[in-house]
Amino acid sequence: MEGGGTLQEWGGRRAVMDALPAMDCYEDMFKEITRKLYGEEGLPDVTEGDHPSMRAQSDYDGESPEGGHGALAAFGLAALMQNGFPPPPGMFGHHHHLQSESTKYRPSGGEDKWVSSEETLQWTGSKIATYNAHQKLFRCTECECVGFLSRVAEHWLGTHANLRVFQCPQCPYASAWARCVRMHLQRQHNVVDTGENNSGLWKENPVLEEVTKYLQRLKNKIESPSVQNVNTPSTTQLKTEFGVSSAPQNHGQNQNSTPSRSSAQPGGTENTPSKRYCCTFCPYATDRRDLFTRHENIHRDEKPFQCYVCQKQFNRADHVKKHFLRMHRDHPYDLNRIRRQPPKNSNGMSYYNKYTSPQQNATRPQSLPTQGQIHHGLNIPAGFPPPPPGIRGVKPPLPSPPKMQQNGCNAKSHGSKTAKKKGEKRYSCCYCAWSGVDNWCLKRHLNTHLKPFVCGLCDYKAARSERLATHVLKVHNKRACGRCSFLGEDSAQLAIHMQEHQ
DNA sequence: CAGCAGGGGGCGT
DNA sequence: CGCCCCCTGCTGT
């Protein structure tokens, strides 16, 4: 298949969403997805919306018309209708299916005649949507969502291709939904973007243009078969379709051109478009496959390693070693004892695959982390799924050693427990006689001299962001973001803002 | 304010 | 795979 490389990556990303990370490489993932999409199963089992990381990726995306699941969730339907979608016909009880001959024409008369294109998008093999000339509406072939051209194109790209084609012109934020970017612009940059006079939401993404042109050709063909391909929408028309104005240039000239790697995958539309591997769930991108694989484990919540002294679990072996050298320096460190499970079991399944069987995945959303959920590591025997991702900073009650004992261990090993300490290296302040154990301590100490956190409403300066936040709250009755200069009117507004930092 | 542990990314091997 | 670096959150002073 032409453009197989791109589709391969696309398929790989779908594979991640399909919770098939046991595949040892993207090639295998692609094969699996191809089998799912076009093989005997015939319908995808997209579960990206079930992934906690996916849910946290963006509050705007959370407001997106789709919940990320192939089936329309209740709120997704409501959002769709809010966006101008008529209620999807037969959505209740319908099952997913790709376009087939049997679904080309509906038996309910001419008014319900949904016609598909004879061509398919080369890089996906999908026919995207069918068109009903009577209703002048498109219907997604994968989930039967119904809407106008731009909406269905946006829906398909965002839901079934998982692409974020709309880019904030002022920051790296991108979304699959134009209105989400408009909302982001309004909230974060105080730019009221009506969709008619906005500042370039249409990301430089030939895929959007390709899909839109594809649907337009389908529409033209059905409504005016004799003039097909004449009314292929221009770039300006496309921008109008999506309510955007300033589109970048150099879009794909060939309508069937294979999308570039950077634009064909969501990560390619992130702030690091040149990276080869881009995470579906967060903005992370890298050129190294091994780093990407390691990063993916973060979103899988697996902790295959554990400290054999205190049973604390880790997702990386080097973290176990670092922990061990910090906390249990009196014990001999044995690399062979830190793995909770062998890398491969007798069936050749990886550790992760073992615990992410379809049954496991089905119950995964119920194990989403919530406030107050604390993992008692000692109660989880080896061989059981790792706990939900712990809330950062909440330390589970470990069986041993108790906190005081840990501190005693630290105190005992002070001065020699790390290479840093071994070398007696100290980081000295240039303004005073202070010296610290690491560079970060020095940085933080320097803030006491420099006070880089300046209140935007008065002359107050603070050495720490939390101090400034306290000041802003007490003096100005506003909620300050610890990561940027945002000031919220109340905690709810700040909470919404903080989600964007995810 | 500073020490500390945990976690994530980059990089070399 | 392991090391180093950086950052964050928690905790004690």
Describe this structure in words.
Residues 1-110, 193-203, 227-273 and 343-424 have low confidence and may be disordered. This protein starts with a helix and ends with a helix. It is built from 20 helices and 16 strands. The chain is α+β, with helices and mostly antiparallel strands and 502 residues long. A hairpin with a 6-residue loop joins strand 11 and strand 12. It is flat, with a radius of gyration of 26 Å.
| Lateral arrangement of strands in the main beta sheet | 1-2-3-4
Q: How far from one another are the termini?
A: 37 Å
Secondary structure: helix percent: 25-40%
Beta-strand percent range: 5-15%
Number of strands: 16
Uncertain runs: 1-110, 193-203, 227-273, 343-424
How many DSSP H or I helices? 20
Q: Give a short account of the largest sheet.
A: 4 strands, antiparallel
| Structural class computed from helices and strand pairing | alpha+beta
- Which radius of gyration do the C-alpha atoms yield? 26 Å
Mean pLDDT: 54
Shape: flat
